[in-house]
Write a structure and sequence with these properties.
70% of the residues lie in helices and 0% in strands. The chain is mostly helical. Helix 1 packs parallel to helix 5, helix 2 packs parallel to helix 3 and helix 3 packs antiparallel against helix 4. 21% of the residues are buried. It contains five helices and no strands.
Length: 91
């Protein structure tokens, strides 16, 4: 049970890393949420800063989720636990 809770907590922490916000901040926008759609995702970052920001934000977001799920699978997490982690990373 503790392992499940730790895996879900880790998934939440990994998913909460605001890649789009960090890239926008580095691109000179101090709060991307005040621009465009108000979202910190790759599409809004691309709308505000240009299409060349879309790919790195999208790829890093996808890789952080993929790598976390691979790590959880390597740790021995069952398929239902991996599904829960995947949902938690997205939330």
């Amino acid at each position: 049970m503790v392992d499940l809770q730790l895996l879900l907590l880790g998934a939440y922490i990994v998913g909460s890393i605001p890649t789009g916000y960090l890239f926008a901040y580095a691109g000179g926008i101090h709060d991307i949420r005040r621009h465009g759609s108000g979202n910190i995702g790759a599409t809004n970052v691309a709308r505000i800063l240009g299409a060349h920001y879309f790919v790195p934000v999208f790829v890093i977001d996808a890789l952080k989720a993929l790598l976390y799920l691979r790590m959880a699978a390597w740790y021995g997490a069952s398929e239902p636990v991996l599904l829960g982690c995947a949902i938690t990373v997205l939330v």
